[in-house]
Amino acid sequence: MDIAACRLRLTDHLDEFADEYAPTFQGAGTLTQQLEQLSKVKALLWEHGFAQWGWPERVGGSGGPAMLRAMVGEEIVARDLVVAGFFSMTETLAPTLIEFASPDVAARFVPRILSGSEMWCQGFSEPNAGSDLASLSCRAVPDEDGWVINGQKLWTSLSQFSQRCLLLARTGTPESRHRGITAFFLDMDTPGITVRPVAIMSGNAEFAEVFFDDVAVPDARRLGEVDGGWSVAMTLLPFERSTAFWHRTAFLWSRLDRIVADDPKDDRAAYLIGEAFTALHALRSRSLATLQRLDRGETLGPETSIDKVLMATAEQKVFDVARTLFPGLMETGDDADAQQWRDEFLYSRAATIYGGTGEIQRNIIARRLLDLGDER
Amino acid sequence: MNLTPDDRSTLAQSLRGTLDPTADPLDNDAALVELGWHDMVESGPDAVGVVFEVLGMTGSSSTVLDDVVAVAAGLEPGSTVGLPRWGSAERPTTIALGSARLDTQRLAGLRPVAGIDPELGFVECDASLLLFGDEDRWPAVVTAARAAIGAWLFGMARAMLEMARTHAVDRTQFGRPIGSFQAVRHKLADVHVAIEAADPALAAVGNGTLDSDLARVLAGQAAAVASMHCQQILAGVGFTEEHGFHRYMKRAMFVDGLFGTTSSICAELGRGLLRDNSVPRTVQLQAHAPR
Ligand SMILES: Cc1cc2nc3c(=O)[nH]c(=O)nc-3n(C[C@H](O)[C@H](O)[C@H](O)COP(=O)(O)OP(=O)(O)OC[C@H]3O[C@@H](n4cnc5c(N)ncnc54)[C@H](O)[C@@H]3O)c2cc1C
Hints:
The structure holds two protein chains of two kinds.
Chain A: H1 3-16, H2 18-21, H3 31-47, H4 67-78, H5 84-87, H6 89-100, H7 103-114, E1 120-123, E2 139-143, E3 146-157, E4 164-170, E5 181-187, E6 193-198, E7 207-218, E8 222-223, H8 229-261, H9 269-295, H10 304-325, H11 329-332, H12 336-348, H13 358-369
Parallel strand pairs in A: 1-4
Antiparallel strand pairs in A: 2-3, 3-7, 4-5, 5-8, 6-7
Helix pairs in contact in A: 1-4, 4-8, 6-7, 6-8, 8-9, 8-10, 9-10, 10-12, 10-13
Chain B: H1 5-18, H2 25-34, H3 37-42, H4 45-58, H5 65-72, E1 95-98, E2 111-112, E3 123-126, H6 138-170, E4 172-173, E5 176-177, H7 182-203, H8 209-238, H9 245-255, H10 262-276
Antiparallel strand pairs in B: 1-3, 2-3, 4-5
Helix pairs in contact in B: 1-4, 4-6, 5-6, 6-7, 6-8, 6-9, 7-8, 8-9, 8-10
Residues 121-125, 130-131, 155-157, 207, 350, 353-354, 357, 359-360, 363 of chain A line the site of flavin-adenine dinucleotide (FAD).
C-alpha cells in the first residue's frame, strides 16, 4: 500500500470531519478529558476504517505494513487531537497479544484496543524492580483452576482507568530472574485487585500502585510459555521504539512549530531553535531508518537504545528551549496555554526515566554495541 | 550517482590504502586524482562523502575541498579556488583562505596559516588571487562544501571513538580495564550516539541545502563530543604529541570553521525557521532507505 496515497485519504477525512475529531476543551485539558478525547478519536478512526490500517486481518485489521500505523498516529498527533503517549500504547499492547495470545483471544481483544472501547495498562515495574526488571517478585502460583497472583506493581500508567492489565509475574524461584517470569493479562475488575492512584508531579493522577491479593486468573489468560514472560516483555520494545516513537516525533515537531510561531524576541532564539531543530532531525532520520528496518522484516535489537537516547535528548531539548525563550511562562503562567507548556515540560523530564532510563540505555550501548565487555 | 553500501565500502577500502596521513596535501591529492577523484567529485555527494570520511578517519591532509567548491561553482576540478575566511560562509571580497595549491614561493602577499593545524597548509591572501565562480552559484558552493566538511568531521569523530574504545579495553587501572568503569563507558556511549545521530543525516545530504546544513551540524556536534570525551578517556597519553589523538582533535577544531562553524550554522538554521515561520518536515515516511 502506498503511504502517500493513504495519508491523503486520511488527511482528507480528518479535514472533512474536523469538528467531530476536535477536543471539546482548550489546551491540555484534565486527565479525564484527555482520556475521553482519546476514546472518541480512536472510535472515530475505527468507525471510518483508519484504525484498522497496518494491523493483520485476523485481529480485525485491514492489513498493510506497520508503517501505515506510524503515519496514522503521526497525523493524529500532529493535529494535537490526542496525548501522543496515550495514543501509542496500542503499539505495544496489540502486537504482544497478536504474538502471544491464542488466535481467538487475540481476535476478541485486539479490536477493543484499536477501537478505543477498552483501555489497557502495563504492569511491569514494582517497588523493588525498576531498572532491574528481572528481579520482580509479584508471584503467580498455579492451582487447579489456573493461577493465583499476589504482590504489587507500581507506576502502572492509566491502570485506574483500565479494563485490563498486561502483567509480568514471578513463576520461577526468586533467584530465577528473567528465566522465571510469566506474562498474563487480567481483568482489572477481578476480586483482589486494589488500585491506588498516584499523582505525577504535574498533579494528574496518571499512574497508580496496583495491589494483588489472591487474584485468580484462568490459564487461558497466560501469554506465551510458563516462564517465558521475558520474551513477551521484549517483543514490546521494537514497537515502542519504532511506530510509537514516530508518533512522538510528530508531537515534538508540533511543539517546535509553536515556539517558532511565537517569534521569540531573544538574542539566543535563532541558535536555540536551530539546536532543537537539529536534534529533531537526528531523531526523525534515525527513527525512519528503524521503521524501514522493521518494514524489511529485520529484528530490532539493542541498537534501538540509540533511538531511545535521541528521543529523550530531543524531547528535553525542545522543552528546555521553550522554557528559555518563554521566560516565566511555565513558572508563573496560569492560563490553559501556560498550563499545557508546564505539564509537557514536566513530562519531558520522564523521557530519561520510563522505558529504560538514560543510564540503562548507555549501559546497553556500551556492552552490546561498543563491545566493552562487562561492567564492574 | 547513488552508491550501494558495497560500492561505498569498496571505495573506502581503496581510499584507505591510498591516503597517507604523513604525506603532504599535494601528494595525497595526486594519489586521489589517480584513483579517479575528478570523476568522483563530478558524480555528486555520495562518493565525495566517502572520500572526506576516509580523509577524516585516516587523518590525512589534502586540498580536495577546493575541487568540491570548484565543481559547485561551475569551474574545472583542479582550479585554485578560494574559501571564506575561518568561521564565515560569506563569499570573500577582500581576504580569503586559499589552499596548499597556492605556490607560496612564487606569489607575494600570502600569509601561511600555521595555526592549530599547519599540516593542512592553508594560506590567507587577497581574494583577487583566487577563483570563486559566479556569484549566483555561491549558495550551491556552500551546500556542497558543508556536505563534504560534514563527512570529514564525521570521519574524525569515528577515528577518535575508535582510539578511545581501544584504549578503554587495553588500559588497566585498579586491576581491571578502564572500560569496565561506568563513567568511562557512558562517555563512550555518548560519543557513539552522537556519531550514529549524524550518520543517516549525512546519507541524505544529496537532498539539498537544508539537509546538508543539518548533517553538517550533527557531524560537528559528533566531532565536538568525541574530542571532549575521548581526550578524557585517553588522559595523559592522549595529551602527548606522540599519540595520534591530538592531530584529530586539532584538525576537527580547524575544519569546524570552514564555511561556518557548527554553532553559526545552527543559528543560521534557526534564523531560517523564524524567517519562514515554519519548521520543515525534513524527513518523510517512506518505505525505502535513501542509501
Ligand atoms: C511517567 C512514567 C510512566 C511509567 N509507566 C509505567 C507503566 O505503565 N508500567 C510500568 O511497569 N512501569 C512504568 N513506569 C516505571 C518505569 O519503567 C521505571 O521508573 C523505570 O524502569 C526506572 O525504574 P525506577 O524508577 O525504579 O528507578 P531505579 O531503577 O531505582 O533507578 C534509579 C536511578 O538509578 C539509576 N540506575 C539504576 N540501575 C543502574 C545501573 N545498572 N547503572 C547505572 N545507573 C543505574 C537509574 O538510571 C536511575 O537514575 C513509568 C515511569 C514513569 C516515570
